[in-house]
Design goal:
Blueprint (H helix, E strand, L loop, with lengths): L1 H15 L10 E2 L21 E4 L15 H6 L1 H7 L3 E4 L27 H13 L3 E7 L8 H8 L11 E2 L20 E4 L4 E4 L14 H16 L4 E5 L15 E5 L5 E3 L10 H13 L6 E4 L6 H5 L11 E2 L3 H4 L5 H12 L8 E3 L8 H5 L5 H13 L4 E5 L20 H6 L41 H5 L5 H12 L8 E5 L6 E8 L2 E8 L5 E3 L14 E6 L12 E3 L4 E6 L1
Parallel strand pairs: 2-3, 2-14, 3-4, 4-8, 8-11, 11-12, 13-14
Antiparallel strand pairs: 1-19, 5-7, 6-7, 9-10, 15-16, 16-17, 17-21, 18-20, 19-21
Helix pairs in contact: 6-7, 12-15
The structure holds alpha-D-glucopyranose (GLC) and calcium ion.
Alpha-D-glucopyranose (GLC) binds next to loops.
Length: about 575
Amino acid sequence: MRQFNGRLTSLLISLTLGSSLFPAVTCFAAQGSAPVVAHSSDPWWKHAVFYEIYPRSFADSNGDGIGDLNGITAHLDYLHDLGVDAIWLTPCYPSPQIDFGYDISDYCNIDPVYGTLADFDKLIAEAKKRNIRIVMDFVINHTSDKHPWFVASRSSKTDPKRDWYVWRDGKEANKPPNNWQSIFGHSAWDLDSRTGQYYYHFFYPQQPDLNWRNPEVRKAMFDVTRFWMDRGVAGFRLDAVGCLFEDQNLQDNPIKPGTNAFGDPNMESKYNDRLEEVHDVLRELRQVIDSYAGDRVLIGETSTSNVKELSRMYGAKLDEIQLPMNFFFAYLNKLSAADFRRLISEWDKNPAQGWPLYFFSNHDQVRHYVRYGDKTNNDAIAKVTATLFLTLRGTPLMYYGEELGMENNDPKRVEDVYDPIGKIGWPKEKGRDGERTPMQWTAADFAGFSTIKPWLTAPASFASHNVTVEEAQPDSILNFYKKLIQLRRTEPLRSGSYEPINTSDQNVVAYLRKGDAGTVMVAINMSGQEQLFKPDLPGKKFSAHESRVLLRSGQPVKPDDNDDAVRLAPFSVHICSLP
Ligand code: GLC
Ligand code: CA
């Protein structure tokens, strides 16, 4: 999948960025906010702030070094104060944990390491009291090889579950059926000695692909969604949704020049990714979730940077995924005003006219604090990226700890790697442990995450970048996120239109959010130099003293003396409402 290539590229780029010295940055409190206008007809997910939690790493309630559901429940007040409306919980189902939960052996239970179904029900109930919804991760492409379905399937060629997975004869003795490679390295086929046939796995060999052409599989998987919706979940994040189908004729994929981090030839996944039939499944699944009240939502891991293709994930009649994830910001690893402007405009006007979702980081990406940081101004830059995705027209999706400026802590030695791709691909691919380290609650031992040494270690910066320290600092990244999230609840930031301005500026990304409640201007200085930004407003002149500052970061060196301009400190933002 491209996000893994993306994370490698991003790491390389962030390592080659130089550092430079700029004035310390402070942020100013909102000096007022625009009136709230309710759009009650909108589904909740259009205006919700989503927050991804990797349960293993959020909070450990029982002192075993691994995060759990009760740990999340214990911190719901924190999430509520931050302004979170919905949690995307990455998999916490029973699992052998080869891929840390993305290999599921029982879809209708909770892994004991994370708690029980009763703990889950409590999490839902406590979250509801705070108006926080829970969205489950739904891994639909594959199960664990320990799932009873696969255990039965591999037992004999005539087992009723045989056809629930993708089994084929080898091409010839000891040769897999074709050249398809696993995205996690090497052949996508494993020979199973019991029956002498190969099974197909797009990911690890312990993650055999389900056969979505089998109606029984569809029914079983749709029943899983009912099980969780009956328990009160607000929707699903569909894992790896593009690769549900494979070409029936098993045609070889085209080979591209060069090799990847695993030493395999580069390959275009032409015949085993994004096949047309995916859309049939998505439409059916959407009907299932729409049969429940409460505007349940589908978020999709749809990793393509092709706007047209991604846009199709909404469905021709907006009848598939409501919020396809675009990986545009996740793949863009430079603070480039021109690139951001282009990507936002493309997605804001996507051909399906679907509602945009924006995010920077997740559990498969190097954290964006590192990707965009220059090692000197990282905290200021964290406010720049926060402002960008929290003031656009669309739904923002955060990754736990980004509100603190959490950075990666990548393993230094292959012996320390947990994530198997880090072992297979070392040293080019170090795996994803680095972005999955414990949430940084305090400056105490183990970052206040656990009472014993946790499964992964927080980066040294946890001493300064943690909840307790940042709550007490008025200009911390955490307090900046809180102000931004509050502000985005107000109109026109909540649902107004997006209109870019000063579109040839190489340093400042600027736009208007316009609606019945007025106009807000957002100006973001992505450069390390102070900018005298002269807003070029359609049909009228900008007057600084007539505008009302809502939130800004950074302290310009020179005073703001020109009425037709805003002076922006290096890596700073300015949000104001216009008359
Ligand atoms: C998705 C998940 C990733 C996982 C893979 C296989 O890409 O985000 O963490 O390894 O699917 O399930
Ligand atoms: Ca625990």
